[in-house]
Amino acid sequence: MFHVQGAGEAMAAAHALSLPVEAYGNDPNIEMIWAMKAYQHAEVYFNLISSVDPKFLKLTKVDDQIYAEFRKSFGDLRIDVLDPEKLKSEPAKAKWRPFCMQFDGVVEDFNYGTLLRLDCTKDYTEENTIFVTRIQFFAIETARNREGYNNAVYSHAMETKSVAAERGISA
Fold first, then answer.
1. Does residue 2 sit within a domain?
2. By mean pLDDT, which of 11-20, 64-73, 109-118, 152-161 is the weakest?
3. pTM for this predicted structure
């Protein structure tokens, strides 16, 4: 896990993230800040779907639009266990690009890098995680929530809490 050490580093990181990407080149410190931010987003999201029934989650103000456009463009995409080729290959990128761009100005930070689980029944691990744009994350996770695929995470978390409560352990 990554940690920003103090207020000075936090302010420097916030300033760095506000600059245009062209200002950096391949600065490893900036890459580390982006990785930290993506990891924190993933951790918060997984805790959320572990605590709240995913069918009730609203990820953005335009979930209905994102979901409708996603299923219109990617109606046959298997979302329970994603194939990275369906996200990262050149033909996939050509199909995803127009989908993503329609949310420029609609969804804040639509093109930020975000971590996505390949198998929605499992946690974020190195083997189960892929780097995607935020709008791809919102599209796939909104579909997983609405179509019941993320129920496995929530159900497992509730079972774990129930067993822990029976044993007098806080989970």
1. no
2. 11-20
3. 0.78
Residue 1 domain flag = no
For residue range 76-94, list pLDDT tens digits in order: 999 999 999 999 999 999 9
Residue 13 forms part of a structural domain = yes
CATH of residue 116 = 1.10.3560.10
Residue 144: count other Cβ atoms within 10 Å of its Cβ: 22
Domain with 114, as residue range(s), is 7-166
Cα angle value 98/119/2 (rounded, 5°) = 85
- Quickly list DSSP for the chain: -----SHHHHHHHHHHHHS-GGGTSS-HHHHHHHHHHHHHHHHHHHHHHHHS-GGG---STTHHHHHHHHHHHSTT---SB--THHHHSHHHHHHHHHHHHTTTTTSTTTTSEEEEESBTTS---STTEEEEEHHHHHHHHHHHHHTTTTHHHHHHHHHHHHHHHHTT---
- Would 154 be classed as within a structural domain? yes
Task: Please state the domain count of the chain.
Answer: 1
